[in-house]
């Protein structure tokens, strides 16, 4: 059964190429069934966040009416990039199963190495500058969150 989930992710990756997107597909599975699927739609959708894993997570969350995908597994045609890995983490997906690896993706022009390196650097050494502004004013939202009795932690 696991192979059928990966085959669906691979089929979505091929469909993505045919429809002008990147060669990536993903499905989110829980309870032995696909609850969300997606293919890369960055260029056709004019949205750099429309990676296959993100699209599949959004579909799964919409289908279940929750942000929490605890107990789910994501099958993806390629090892997730840092953005997708973060989304998988925040969705609380319990396992990632992938086919192609990041070295193979880099060989065809999808190289995430610079992002992994950037995240590992101290803030002051990053190539993409970070500047802090209005920190004290922004803390108000944190104070409101801390005091909120009915907050839904995630």
Characterization of the model:
With 154 residues, this protein is of the alpha+beta class. The protein is built from 7 helices and 4 strands; from the N terminus they run H-E-E-H-H-E-H-E-H-H-H. It has a 4-stranded mixed sheet. It is globular.
Question: How far do the termini sit from each other?
Answer: 31 Å
What is the number of beta strands?
Answer: 4
Number of helices: 7
Structural class: alpha+beta
User: Residue share in helices?
Assistant: 40-55%
| Content of β-strand | 15-25%
Global shape: globular
Low-confidence stretches: none
Largest sheet: 4 strands, mixed
Side-by-side strand order of the widest sheet = 2-1-3-4
Order of helices and strands: HEEHHEHEHHH
Radius of gyration: 18 Å
Mean pLDDT: 95
Task: Summarize this structure briefly.
Helices cover 45% and strands 16% of the residues. It is α+β, with helices and mostly antiparallel strands.
Topology:
Elements: H1 2-18, E1 25-30, E2 33-39, H2 42-45, H3 52-64, E3 73-78, H4 82-90, E4 95-100, H5 102-107, H6 113-120, H7 135-147
Parallel strand pairs: 3-4
Antiparallel strand pairs: 1-2, 1-3
Which features does this protein show?
about 150 residues, alpha+beta, four-stranded mixed sheet, 7 helices, about 45% helix
């Amino acid at each position: 059964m696991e192979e059928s989930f990966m085959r669906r992710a691979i089929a979505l990756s091929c469909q993505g190429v045919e429809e002008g997107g990147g060669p990536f597909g993903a499905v989110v599975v829980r309870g032995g069934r696909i609850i969300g699927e997606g293919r890369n739609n960055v260029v056709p959708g004019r949205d750099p966040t429309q990676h296959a894993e993100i699209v599949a997570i959004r579909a799964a969350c919409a289908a279940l009416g929750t942000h929490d995908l605890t107990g789910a597994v994501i099958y993806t045609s390629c090892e997730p990039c840092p953005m997708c890995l973060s989304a998988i983490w925040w969705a609380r997906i319990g396992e990632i199963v992938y086919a192609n690896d990041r070295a193979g993706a880099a060989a065809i022009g999808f190289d995430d190495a610079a992002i992994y390196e950037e995240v590992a650097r101290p803030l002051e050494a990053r190539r993409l500058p970070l500047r802090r502004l209005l920190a004290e004013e922004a803390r108000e939202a944190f104070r409101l969150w801390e005091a909120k009795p009915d907050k839904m932690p995630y």
